[in-house]
């Protein structure tokens, strides 16, 4: 669990404890509040210590039971604040990959300039249907989520229509490792690399490759996106992080610009891709 997420839970728990202790009719003990809420008293301390995430229903009931109904809106805002920024894969994929892709489609559709970095897989906006199908299948197996692979692929391909709309810019950098990762069978990967070479020169796409031989100023860590300087999105195995604060956005743009210094473009990028393409077919 992310440190920011846990800190937010602890802060919310401290506020809940304050409401319990400042009950207008007198300080409530944990067991007394539990009796009012109809729950085991251990839940009270788990919530107050940040060891359990409260639900919206928990917060409404807590505000009423402690005599502070006016605090309901504040508590719900706190919950929405940290839950909307830490989007667990378990919750997001409970209905499959297609809804996640459609949410991304909506977000990208209102974006004019995208900065993206991928270190281990081909950028989603540039994936072929076959490559994307293998990606969704692997992650559905990992997360044990509903198998809606074909629907998810179609949703991702609809997003790619934005690549051809004038007035947008997709500034994508990938590490060379992404070109070699055998997340799919060799024929599918070869076709994927063919598509990449076709993207070079498209006026809406600026595609850079960081070769294995490049000198790096920083490590090639997790993939991320910055959308219109208003939102940074990165992901880990447990969750996506959606970050809207100016400091985080500036940090990710700084990382992107630093990685860009090691990237090659145009004919040099095509050479790197073609080298990877030839390695797939070599004995």
From TrEMBL:
Residues 16-73 form the HTH cro/C1-type domain. It comes from the Bacteria. GO terms for molecular function: DNA binding. InterPro entries: Cro/C1-type_HTH (IPR001387), DUF5753 (IPR043917), Lambda_DNA-bd_dom_sf (IPR010982). This is Transcriptional regulator. It holds the Pfam family HTH_31. PROSITE patterns: HTH_CROC1.
């Amino acid at each position: 669990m992310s440190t920011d997420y846990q800190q937010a839970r602890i802060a919310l728990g401290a506020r809940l404890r304050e409401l319990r202790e400042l009950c207008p009719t007198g300080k409530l003990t944990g067991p007394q509040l539990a009796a009012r809420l109809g729950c085991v008293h251990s839940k009270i301390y788990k919530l107050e210590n940040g060891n359990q995430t409260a639900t919206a229903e928990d917060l409404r009931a807590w505000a009423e039971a402690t005599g502070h109904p006016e605090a309901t809106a504040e508590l719900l805002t706190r919950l929405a604040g940290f839950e909307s920024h830490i989007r667990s894969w378990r919750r997001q994929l409970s209905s499959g990959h297609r809804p996640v892709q459609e949410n991304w489609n909506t977000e990208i559709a209102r974006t004019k300039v995208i900065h993206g970095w991928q270190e281990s897989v081909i950028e989603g906006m540039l994936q072929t249907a076959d490559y994307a199908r293998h990606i969704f299948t692997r992650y559905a197996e990992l997360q044990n989520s509903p198998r809606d692979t074909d629907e998810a692929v179609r949703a991702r391909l609809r997003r790619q229509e934005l690549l051809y709309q004038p007035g947008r810019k997709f500034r994508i950098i990938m590490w060379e490792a992404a070109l070699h990762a055998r997340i799919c069978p060799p024929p599918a990967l070869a076709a994927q690399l063919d598509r990449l070479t076709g993207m070079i020169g498209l006026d809406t796409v600026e595609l850079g490759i960081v070769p294995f031989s490049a000198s790096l100023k920083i490590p090639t860590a997790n993939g991320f996106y910055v959308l219109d300087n208003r939102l940074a999105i990165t992901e880990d195995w447990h969750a996506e992080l959606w970050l809207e604060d100016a400091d985080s956005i500036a940090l990710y743009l700084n990382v992107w610009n630093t990685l860009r210094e090691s990237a090659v473009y145009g004919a040099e990028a095509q050479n790197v891709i073609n080298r990877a393409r030839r390695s797939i077919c070599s004995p």
